[in-house]
Amino acid sequence: MNSKDILKYCPNYYNIVNFDFNESDIISEKLINIYKNYILSVNLDCEEEVTRVTNLDRVFGSYIHDYLFRSTLQKEIINVRVKKDENIIRSLVDSILKIFNNYEEYTTRKLYISKWI
Q1: Distance, CA of 8 to CA of 28 (rounded, Å)
Q2: Tell me: the pLDDT tens digits for 68-106?
Q3: What value, to the nearest 5°, has the Cα angle with vertex 81 and ends 76 and 82?
Q4: CA diameter of the chain
Q5: What confidence category does residue 51 fall into, taking pLDDT thresholds of 50, 70 and 90?
Q6: Which string of DSSP letters, residue by residue, matches the chain?
Q7: CB under 8 Å to 27, separation ≥6 — which residues?
Q8: For the whole model, what pTM was predicted?
Q9: Of these four, 14, 17, 31, 46, which has the most CB atoms within 10 Å of its CB?
Q10: Is the separation of the CB atoms in 54 and 12 below 8 Å?
Q11: Are 65 and 49 in contact (CB under 8 A)?
């Protein structure tokens, strides 16, 4: 599998891996390493994994651009527990995607435009 094929699904890859985070920010360093390891190890023949990679790229794109999401993910990822028999990176990726979905659901508001009579 060629890494260039995988990167077609990850338009934010270079922005994410080159993200300039604070030297003392160990969590960002670990999260970006998880992102890189998962992206480069995925099987493109599996449609479910391609979808997961595309979503993960979008989530980490938000991570580097949205300070509120970054702090939310850093707080939540500490509480994630992985069972001994599970694939650690895949479990973490699934948890990151779940945290992002919860973040999006609770931070986006529906705006209603009232109609004046």
Answers
A1: 24
A2: 999 999 999 888 888 888 888 888 999 999 999 998 888
A3: 135
A4: 62
A5: very high
A6: --HHHHHTT-TTHHHHHT----TT-HHHHHHHHHHHHHHHH--TT-HHHHHHHHHHHHHHHHHHH-HHHHHHHHHHHTT----TTS-HHHHHHHHHHHHHHHHHHHH----------
A7: 74, 77, 78
A8: 0.82
A9: 31
A10: no
A11: no
Spacing of C-alpha 105 from chain mean position: 15
Q: φ, ψ for residue 46 (rounded to 5)?
A: -95, 115
How far does Cα 25 stand from its chain's mean position? 17
**C-alpha span between 20 and 39 (Å, rounded):** 20
Alpha carbon distance 103, 107 (integer Å): 6
